[in-house]
Amino acid sequence: MLRFARHAETPAAILATALLGAALLLTLPLHARNQANSPATWTVTIVLPPKLMAGHPATLAVLGVDGKLAAGVKVDLSDGQSVNTDRTGRAVFSVAPTGDYLLAKSSGALAAALIDPASAASEPKAITLPAIVSAQDRFWICGAGLSGEADANEVRINGQPALVMAASPICLVALAGPNTKPGPASVSVDAPGVHWSATTTLVALTFEAPRPSLRPGEKGQLIVRAQGATQKMRIVVQNQTPGVLKFIRGDVQEVLTSGGPQNLAPVKVQTIASGNFSFSARLMPQTDAASAGRYLRAAVSLAPKQTQRELSILADRLARHPRESPMVRAQMQAIAANTIAGDLRTLLEAASDAL
């Protein structure tokens, strides 16, 4: 994900700072002065492999509000275990021998992962990973023969080392190194006794502010560019300061880049008030209707009776008509929006993210 923040009284040049495990922070000039920054609330992000293997070790990671790996954070697991992240911001745990999914909770944050039975891990011919990978955000790699201990897996992108944040015997979550350039990429994975390789396209999202800077009441557009690829791609942009800057078509939008050498996506905006503004942008994930269906079926047992039938119908629809994923995702998001924070909403959001 790419996170942009704009502040008053800064140099005219764009400053960029890479944040481990998060994104890119861009600082730009603004006409406003004397505005106060809103206080930050402590929160974390829990990173789990997309799939775990029953009865085997796995590694999770925790990111702090600054996007960096956070040490000494307690994480409670839905199978009754509790683990604390080590100095690297990660923790190794053992997956229960039974169960369809795992929930992890910490500091108000929740995350979910699917659990595959150990017998389902047949040897594949290669690893799999998304066809397009963000240079600024974590991505998954799946295949048999991996290690549940993150440091036992070595991932390289075009020869440059990548950080393995989370791991299981069947999936890893990695982050490209800061020196990895966007464009066609060769990915190699080494684990005890196995060596896999695959290709992908590495994309970096960059940002252009309105020129000249907008004053309160004025309209303009932000430009998000996808460097490293010429094909059209879906991007999600989210306004994080709606009281300062309004996204005219909604504070959360899915936009399609233009494709071609410029490969950009404009976002129409209007300035509401003087002050700092920020927004985030990320690539839409590769559609995984099978995983989304598994999360939906898991959510059925936690849902109120009036919602259970609706979720079952959506799961059946995904299984029979995977091309209808966008419509199913919209309905899941509507249900999640009316569900209080907790296990059920976490599963619904996991299903939505898989689409």
Q: How many discrete domains? A: 3
At the fourth CATH level, what is the homologous superfamily of the largest domain?
A: Immunoglobulins
Count of DSSP strands: 24
Find the CATH topology of the largest domain. Immunoglobulin-like
CATH class category name of the largest domain: Mainly Beta
Give the topology string: H per helix, E per strand: EEEEEEEEEEEEEEEEEEEEEEEEHHHH
Determine the fraction of residues in helical runs and give it as a percent range: 10-25%
Distance between the termini: 17 Å
Query: Biggest sheet, open or closed, and with what strands and sense?
Result: 10 strands, mixed
Can you offer a commentary on this structure?
- With 355 residues, the chain is mostly beta strands.
- It has 3 domains: 2-39 and 209-283, no CATH class; 45-199, Immunoglobulins (Immunoglobulin-like, Sandwich), CATH 2.60.40; 289-353, no CATH class.
- Helix content is 15%, strand content 39%.
- It contains 4 helices and 24 strands.
- Strands 12, 13, 14, 15, 16, 17, 18, 19, 21 and 23 form a 10-stranded mixed beta sheet that branches. A 5-stranded mixed beta sheet has the order 5-11-10-7-8. A 4-stranded antiparallel beta sheet has the order 1-24-20-22, with no helix packed on it.
- Strand 17 (183-191) and strand 18 (194-208) form a beta hairpin.
- Helix 2 (305-320) packs antiparallel against helix 3 (325-337) and helix 3 (325-337) runs antiparallel to helix 4 (343-353).
- It is globular and about 60 Å long.
